[in-house]
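for the writeup, i need someone to sanity check this before i put it in the appendix. the sequnce is what the collaborator sent (i think, or maybe the updated version? ugh). structure was predicted straight from it, no edits. if anything looks off just tell me and ill rerun, i have time this weekend
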Amino acid sequence: MSLVAYEDSDSETETEKTEAPDASGRQTNQLSSSVSCVQHFAPGSTKSTHEMHPAGSTGRSGWSRVCGDPPEHYAQNNNTDLAPPYCQRVYSGHAAVSVAYKNYEQASSSSANSGNGISQKRTHKDSATTLKKLRPYIPKRLRQEHSSKPEKEESDQRGSSDCDVKLSGSGEQALRKISELIKPYLGSKYKVTEVPKSLIFYMSKHSGPVNEIQWCPVREQSHMLLSASMDKTVKVWDAVDTGCCLKTYSCHSCAVRAARWSSCGRRILSGGFDSMLHLTDVETGKQIFSSKTEFRISALKFHPTESNVFICGGFSPEVKAWDLRTSKVLRVYKAAVQQTLDILFLPEGREFLTSTDAVSRDSADRTIIAWDFQSAAKISNQIFHERYTCPSLTLHPKESVFVAQTNGNYMALFSAQRPYRINKKKRYEGHKVEGFAVGCEFSPDGTLLVTGSSDGKVFFYNYHTSRIIRTLSAHKEACVSAIFHPVLPSLLATCDWAGEIKVWQ
């Protein structure tokens, strides 16, 4: 009798220890986010205070957040009790943890040890005592049978997934939700874009350089931000409400160079240096389409009107158009080049442009090539005559023009209609590229042109005057991408070569 009593009481205690945190710590025992609250200092002042700006007193955007210490101070203190009330409300139980990026080797080793987040030990003695008093007695055999079934089903589901997916917190609900901050703007047109000034989120879970970021194209789900990194992963972030990493997809065996949302926002197309193409379901992480190409992939773009068709380019003289319905190549576009740097569809998708590395000492032909999408015929290869490669291309949202980022440390403006002539009166210069694949983009209203810089700054240009409006010291390493939010005015996301992603307003 004593032995049986001892065994039952011991098993009951063990069950309480494992089940109590699940019941009482539902809000506090979430996976920690790598988001640092930030503190802004007035010029000449060394005193730091926590501030909170209510909605309605922040100008056009209607919401603003200023909270906590800078990432460097927060990483040293690592005291979540200092978080202001707004941060506690927004994260709703998530512990704000900052992972300072030291260098590539240190980040890689730390990520290998810690996984996708930073675990924190928590005790729930009081909750366990309360549950012990209220919970009726259940025999050990019944408890074991009841607990083994969900674990077996969960393991079966995990084994059926084709992609290694890591879920952070309540990621499934966050993927399907509509942000309360976005709802007021869904029924109205985009307002005038203002230059962002304040740092909202600092996210650093990538252990390698971030190559590309993109907001979800579905307006209702545009709180999600996609990022592709050299650390072989693709991540989806809640970059509007919490700054948390919702999901991590580890489908590639080498660096992920390009990743794009599908038009429905339910799938992610990714390509990398492992020469693999993957179309991944956002919620389940399963592979809808996979194929191995003959070259390393550096550029991907979906067709603007045919959602099942995309174009792929990379370290090859060929650019290929794929159809996801048949999983086959539709057309092949051949050019006498070694690498395709970027792809840009022109309005209606009948024609598209590719920027290449075909620059010689005596000629700059084939630097930008215009193609007919249906016939695969080359329309023009005499668009840009200056001897600089163009790592990125972007289309104006309202006018029939496009901009090419050049390695000559300036952006050139072209007509988006034949014969695609360059505008010699406008040149956007002042930033630095210096060999990085620095991206550029227009604001949704078309008034601003934003670009990163190899010195870590972000430059804002007036589209009409081509003058620099403001310079933002965003990163310490090269800032390779800066993109405006499609719905929320003046919300900007940036990423750099150190693996950091920041959100500004």
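Helices lie at 2-24, 71-77, 85-91, 104-114, 125-134, 140-160, 171-176, 183-186. The radius of gyration is 25 Å.
thx in advance!!
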